[in-house]
Amino acid sequence: MKSIKGVLFDLDGVFYVGNQLISGGNETLAWLRKQGIKYQFITNNTTLSRSALVAKLKRLGLNIKEDELLSANYAGVLQLKKMGLHRCRLILSKAAQTDYPPTVLEEPEAIVIGDIGNSWDYDLLNELMNQLLEGAELIALHKGRYFQTEAGLQLDSGAFVAALEHATGKKAQVVGKPSQAFFEMGSSLLAAKPHELLMVGDDLVNDIQGAQNAGYLAVLVQTGKYREALVKQGDINPNGIITSVAELPNYLLSS
Predict the structure, then answer these.
(1) What's the CA angle centered on 142, arms 25 and 171, to 5 degrees?
(2) For 131-145, what is each residue's pLDDT tens digit?
(3) CB 131, CB 152: distance < 8 Å
(4) Per-position DSSP letters for 62-93, written without gaps between them
């Protein structure tokens, strides 16, 4: 445990699923604070603004502050500012558009893609394809394959990003996990070297592989989108597997 100075946490599937907290999360956070181990939440959530997501999590009962959270949605805002782009078509829910410039439908400089649920259809994909072919940049807040809901696994927006990449030959700029820049942004306040950081998540690609590629240790929780078969058939090897976030203190004490 002495070698771990900071922990990065995924949220969805680790601390909650749908509108239900996973037990033991607050106790783990309290234990980390007592041990003097800093932590940050990094999430690919793109359905809400950062402030709205924090408000939702507080309503669910999670002990979280806004400055402890970096979301892919907020990282998209920072990326647009960095690129100096203002005319953007936002493929985002209304609740996620708060911090962005107003959306434009004609001749956008960039198309920003996040989660819009089942609002995807052929006509929308065709419109976006043509705007990309006409010169718009493609910015993906993440390229998740699927996510866990109370009804089971659901197709994520990464599938539609991949379709647009295939059709246009353009490569999306991915700002969320598993991009190394996103991990570095999330860990910038933890004052630790990569090998002193631990990522805790439920996604083999976005959380585990992404963190390991950035030089961090990574622990997989058996909640959320975890599936034993996917772990066995894949070539991504977590540094550890725990039943839930509640078991993190025991894992750190025994490692």
Answers:
(1) 160
(2) 999 999 999 999 988
(3) no
(4) ----GGGEEEHHHHHHHHHHHHT---EEEES-
Interatomic CA distance for residues 79 and 100, integer angstroms: 11
- Inter-axis angle of helices 50-60 and 72-83, to 10 degrees? 170
Q: Where are the domains of the chain?
A: 6-44+183-254, 73-174
What six digits make up the tokens of 102?
Answer: 């107003």
Spell out the CATH class of 73-174.
alpha beta
- Per-residue b or e along 35-56, where b marks 16 or more CB atoms closer than 10 Å to that residue's CB: eebbbbbbbbbbbbbbeebbeb
Assign domain 6-44+183-254 to its CATH architecture.
3-Layer(aba) Sandwich (3.40)
Query: Cα–Cα distance between 26 and 31 in angstroms, integer?
Result: 9
Query: The tokens of 246 are what?
Result: 């509640």
Which pLDDT tens digit goes with each residue over 95-109? 999 889 899 999 999
The percent of residues above 70 in pLDDT, for the chain, comes to 99
Would 6-44+183-254 and 73-174 be classified into the same CATH topology? Answer: yes
Q: What is the mean pLDDT of residues 172-195?
A: 90
> pTM for the full model?
0.82
